[in-house]
Every structure is written in structure tokens, then in C-alpha cells.
Amino acid sequence: MLNRATFPPVTLSDIEAAHPRIASYVRRTPLARSETLSQRLGTNIYLKAELFQKTGAFKVRGAFNRMLSISGDARGKGVVAMSGGNHAQAVAYAARALGMKALIFMPQSTPKNYVDGTRSYGATVSFVPTSLDGFAAMDDYATKGWVAVHPFNDPLVIAGQGTAGLEILDDAPQVTDVIVSIGGGGLIAGIATAVKSRRPDLRVWGVETQGADCMAQALAAGHVVTMSAVTSIARTLGAPAASEETLAAVKRYVESVTVVSDAEAIAALRLLLERTKMLVEPAGSCTLAAAERLRDQFGPDRHVVLFLCGGNIGVDDLCRLP
User: Fold this and answer.
1) What is d(CA 64, CA 18) in angstroms, rounded to the nearest whole number?
2) Long-range CB contacts (< 8 A, 24+ apart) of 215-219?
3) What are the boundaries of each domain within the chain?
4) Which whole-number Å values give the CA distances from 319 to 93, 94, 261, 266, in the listed order?
5) Which residue of 23, 135, 174, 303 could cross-link 44, Cys pair, CB 3.0 to 4.6 Å?
6) What Cα–Cα distance (Å) separates residue 2 from each residue in 92, 97, 133, 194, 213?
């Protein structure tokens, strides 16, 4: 149900090839030092503001890298995807840009802003009871001639996400640590592969929220674990399971995965909004919450990048935050 297809590990060469391929379709997002957060944590904190990416999140990187690889003859009936958030909008946006038809399966609990955004790019939305049902429907349509664009279990998607890691190294060559949030693990697999391949001494830290912690559960169990339900407020971290490939990348490259509470992610969201004027969704603000937890790891000589993966939180949801 979660597309257990296996593939060789993504390499630095894959990511370096993806970077120029997608360059004209995505934004090179800013990276800047935060004096406020640096003083607060007693180290040097930098913010990679991927919330200013097209569609408001990093997902377009992987979507374009995957979809640009589809030749005319292989386009079939169009592309099909499953997502309750940022991947849906990314695939819809990329499909419109590339002149392709897109069908997106979305859980019935998907917030309205994601549904409206996905439809605004011209995609057809079909609702399913749960994300597991959506993955099953996506796989079924793939057998009928549609091209499936998986949100994380695809080497081209992972390589596309990894291009953000190349930008971090270019824009902050002094970086010593990168903190990245985890949904299904495609983002951290790509970024970690990119930065560790060029800088083996650099440390990558993962973060999840309670109730959306499939990677932490997989690490504890020693194998992929499928969650029966995702309950965290960080909806865009809501993959019910990692994949064998993303789990392997985390085991190989990532120092640890910190699991923070929703309350910690919300407190970090408020701090980022008040002090940096950036409205980051909980899936991104949790990196600051993790930095607070990990502060003993970072002294004044460290240079820590927080990857703010997206800013697609609806106004109604924002006003309902506790």
C-alpha cells in the first residue's frame, strides 16, 4: 500500500544532476543568520527559508525532478499522487507547468487551504478515507497507465529534495550542523546525502513530532513501521510509514531523530513569527524546537542551519492553534 519498490541509494551525482535540471522551475530560497535565535541558543543559527519556495514548500524540487524525467511517450494518462498537503500542490503545480494532467488523492481530513491550492493549479482531487487508502488508489491507477509520483519513495524525488542541501553548502560553507524535519524521509535522505557526501564531518539531525514519528518508531524497531493513525498537528509530517530506502539513509547519515511535542512546535512557530516575521508551518518550526532540545550539542563555534521546509498553514488553522 505504501509502494515498497526498492532502488539503489541516491548518490551525490544524482543530486548534482538534478540541480540544473530543475533550476528554471524552482526558486533558490534565501539562507540567513538569525541574531535573535543565535543569542537564544548560544550558537550561530541560520534559517533556510524554504517556505518562500514556489507553492510554499520544498516539495516542488522533487516533483519537478521526477516529472521532467517522464518522456512524451511515457506520460500515459497523466500523473497521479497521494498527499494531504505540500506534495499535492507541488505535483499539481509541476503538472500545469509541464502540460500534464494530474490526479491527486487526498485524505478526507485534509485542510481546506491544501485542497483549494491543489485545485487552483488545475489538478483533479479525489478524497479517500485515509492516506493508506490514497496510496493504494495511487498504485492502482499506476497499473492503468498513469505515472505515479510518490511523495518520498522515489530516487528522483529524493534527489530533487537534495538540491536544497547543495544550496546550503554554497550559501553557508561554514555550516557544521543541519536540522531537518521528517515525514516519510525523502527530504532528509536527499539533504543528508548531499551534505554528508561533500562534507563527511557535517552533522545532520532529524526531527519529528509526537503522533507523526514513523521514522523514530522505525529506528527503535529496526525496520519500517506503519502507524495506524497520524495524530500530530504537523499534518505535513503525516506519512504513515517511512520506506526502506529513507530509513537506510537516516541510519547511514543522521546523528539522531528528536521527537518533539505539538506544543513545542507551536511555541517555536510563534517565536519564529514574532522575531523573524516568517510564518512557518509546524512541520518546519519543529526544527527550532529540536534545536532547543539539542542545545547542548551546539557551542559558540558551531554553525547550525534550521531547514524551514514550508509555510502552508491556513489562516483558520493558525487561529485555532492553542
Assistant:
1) 9
2) 215/182, 215/185, 215/242, 215/246, 215/247, 215/250, 215/257, 216/257, 216/259, 218/242, 218/247, 219/247, 219/250, 219/251, 219/257
3) 12-58+154-320, 60-148
4) 27, 30, 19, 12
5) 303
6) 20, 27, 9, 25, 16
Phi/psi of residue 221, nearest 5 degrees: -85, -20
Q: Kindly state the average pLDDT of the residues 138-143.
A: 94
Q: How many CB atoms lie within 10 A of CB 172?
A: 19
CA distance 266 to 35: 21
C-alpha cell at 283: 512541520
- Assign 1 a pLDDT band (cuts: 50, 70, 90): very low
Instruction: Report pLDDT for 75.
Output: 78
Nearby residues of 101 by Cβ (< 8 Å), 6 or more positions away: 77, 78, 79, 95, 124
What is the spatial distance between Cα 44 and Cα 34, in angstroms, rounded to a whole number? 8
Out of 66-75, 127-136, 303-312, least confident range:
66-75
Average confidence score pLDDT of the chain: 95
Structure letter (DSSP) for residue 77: T
Q: Which of 96, 134, 85, 136 is nearest to 238 (CA)?
A: 85
Tell me which residue has cell 517555536: 268
Q: What pLDDT score was predicted for residue 212? A: 95
Residue with cell 505515472: 147
Q: Same CATH fold, 60-148 and 12-58+154-320?
A: yes
CATH of 60-148, one of 3.40.50.1100, 3.20.20.210, 3.90.1150.10, 3.10.110.10: 3.40.50.1100
Cα separation, 140 vs 124, whole angstroms: 16
Confirm whether pTM is higher than 0.85: yes
Q: Which amino acid is at 305?
A: V
Measured CA to CA in angstroms, residue 166 lies from 48, 64, 162, 270, 305 at distances of 12, 17, 7, 29, 13
Asked: is 12-58+154-320 a CATH 2.40.50.100 domain? The reply is: no
